[in-house]
Structures are given as structure tokens and as C-alpha cells.
Amino acid sequence: MKAADLAEGSISAVDIDGEHVLLSKIGGEVFAVAGTCTHEEADLGQGFVLDGRVVCPLHLSQFDLKTGDVVTPPATDPLKHYKTRVDAGTVYVEV
Ligand code: FES
């Protein structure tokens, strides 16, 4: 994916090597966390962004998009966090 295709404050779910990954851009940086909610496996790509957090579309748990940490329940387990880098405008994710 091109970094320019990811708008500031937006999310995009992609599948990489069998992993469902949620990309986001915050403060011009690209972040990647698991794209499946740890509560009941909802697709976080269908969620929405609120102040640097993704809100699960099913029961509204919130996760920090930079770290994957749970911000609000009912989820209790954090999302897996992946390292990212942008090289020549292309986003790379270490899965
Ligand atoms: S499936 Fe995400 S909060 Fe329940």
C-alpha cells in the first residue's frame, strides 16, 4: 500500500501473509495493529476512528491505534502490534 493512499486519521484493513492487519495514519506516521477484535472477533476495519483509537463496530471497545492497548471494555486483551516502515512512499509491515 502507498502511504499517500492512507489519509490522516483513517484506518484500512489489509490481509498480509494470513494476518488481518489494521493500518492507520496518526500524526503523519503509519501504525499497524491486528484487525480483529480480541473480544468476539469483529472486523475492526468496519469500525471507526476516535481520537487515535479504533472503536469496534460490534460492542464498542476502543483500542489505541499506536499500541493496540485496550482503552475501554468489554475487550480486555490488547491487539497485536506490528512494526511498520515507509520506504519510497510504500508501507511495509513486519508480520
Ligand atoms: S467484538 Fe469487539 S467489543 Fe465485542
Based on the model shown, name its key terms.
mainly beta, binds FE2/S2 (inorganic) cluster, five-stranded antiparallel β-sheet, Rieske Iron-sulfur Protein, about 100 residues, four-stranded antiparallel β-sheet
What does this structure look like?
The structure is a single chain. The chain has 95 residues and is mostly beta strands. It has one domain: Rieske [2Fe-2S] iron-sulphur domain (Rieske Iron-sulfur Protein, 3-layer Sandwich), CATH 2.102.10.10. 0% of the residues lie in helices and 46% in strands. A five-stranded antiparallel β-sheet has the order 1-2-3-8-9, with no helix packed on it. A four-stranded antiparallel β-sheet has the order 4-5-6-7, with no helix packed on it. The radius of gyration is 12 Å and the shape is globular. The model has no long low-confidence stretch (mean pLDDT 96). It binds FE2/S2 (inorganic) cluster.
- Strand order in the sheet with the most strands: 1-2-3-8-9
Instruction: List all distinct small molecules, including ions and cofactors, that are bound in this structure.
Output: FE2/S2 (inorganic) cluster
Query: What's the number of extended β-strand segments?
Result: 9
Domains, number: 1
Topology (elements, then pairings):
Layout lengths: L10 E6 L2 E8 L2 E6 L13 E3 L2 E3 L6 E3 L5 E3 L8 E7 L2 E5 L1
Antiparallel strand pairs: 1-2, 2-3, 3-8, 4-5, 5-6, 6-7, 8-9
Bound molecules: FE2/S2 (inorganic) cluster.
FE2/S2 (inorganic) cluster (FES) binds next to loops.
